[in-house]
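re: ur question from yesterday

yeah so i grabbed the chain u mentioned. its 487 aa long if i counted rite. heres the sequnce exactly as i have it in my notes:
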Amino acid sequence: MSETTFPLIGTKAPSTTRIVPVILSGGSGSRLWPVSRASYPKQLWPLVGDRTMLQETALRGVGEMFDAPIVICNNEHRFLIAEQLRAAGIEDARIVLEPVGRNSAPAIAAAALLVAETDPDAVLWIMAADAVITRPEAMARMMPAAAAAAQRGHIVVFGMHPTRPETGYGYIEAGTPLAKLPEASTVASFIEKPDAATAADLIVSGRYMWNSGMFVFTARTLLDEMETYAPAVLTPVRQAVARRVSDLMFQRLDTPSFTAAPDISFDYAVMEHTDHAAVIAGDFGWTDVGSWDALWDISDKDDNGNVSHGNVFLEGARDSYVRSDEILTAVVGVEDVVVVATRDAVLVTQQSKAQDVKKMVARLQSAGRREAQSHNRCYRPWGFYESLIQDSRFQVKRIVVTPGEKLSLQKHYHRAEHWIVVSGVARVTRDEEQITVHENQSIYLPQHCTHRLENPGRIPLVLIEIQTGSYLGEDDIIRLEDTYNRN
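ran it thru and got these structure tokens back, copy pasting raw so excuse formatting
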């Protein structure tokens, strides 16, 4: 593929051009707690608009100039991500599973190695799954110029025109324009997330842009630069890719090899060292929605400057963000605050302190609080469950099973279960029996019995589960057989 095959900005890409969108979906978004948690992070939520952030990101890479996307995520989210992509009409994505989190450099290296297996000169477009772009048409107009620079050996980063002295973003200083590519410039310097005073100075200077974390390069260029500047990353990741295995519709990177890679960002590993960095300035309405005040900033507001979602009533509030996913949340006479209520946690903070939510999450983790990591509703490949009541020797759950799906064949050492069907039809395996349970019927599963729950119908199966026993932890599940290859 020659460097002249890709047109400059504003013209149509030829059909032979191949751009591979690569979506990184490994973050937990702890500054958007309690909505975003490790078990169900912000990219899986529809925080802006009707589609989730992952879906919006994936749909930016749909069109004649793009190949099937690669999504790199962790094992826990694999079925959620697959389902969300299908719901968005994306059926051909390659979902690659990281066995452990190792920051962006190893993930990007894995994507480049996978693409290079079939076309080392293919252009990759790296995107985080949790950013918002309110003007995607402006982004699309810049892609030809970025790809043209990439085909000439550059690693291109999109720089966003800053609108405020943001301390949560890195910054880029543009250098001289590239020859024959006036839309792109060399990179004079990178500055990591500054303090407030430094950020204000950078804005006043007018020379700096926000680092969007979106990169465009060819697989060949990226691997050459990693060979030079980050061999400690590339070597184990190369082994992890070579030793990967297929698991249902997923590709699992080799655990020992990938674990040996250092935990390092792409900026630190490559961008701050390479001589081939280039930047294209853009005004795409970009934000990484890294905090509640950032979400307030980009959302539609009422006449008093408030943003409200869900079961919310406001009286005399101004310039505030209020969200409730379930319970009634009434806010009276406050200004510049964030109030977020979920089923099991409530957050209240000043907007100016929104970046400090991450510190609170760290404290909750240190205290061993489940709410730091997990939601009350836990999603599984067959559906979800949520705890309604819990005490020392009993627990009541609601279980919803998707049509055609089934739980693992399992047993418990420490608890018995009583299932009551609320809607739908359940097919229950209990030791040697197979029993059909209809609405308003129930079945008892004694301690130690082998059992399985299936939904053979065409509507969701909803049941109430009552657990009793001396220990009710989720680790008291002995899986004997599982459709989804879970250990």
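noticed a couple things. The chain has eleven helices and 28 strands. also Residues 1-15 have pLDDT under 50 and may be disordered.
anyway ttyl
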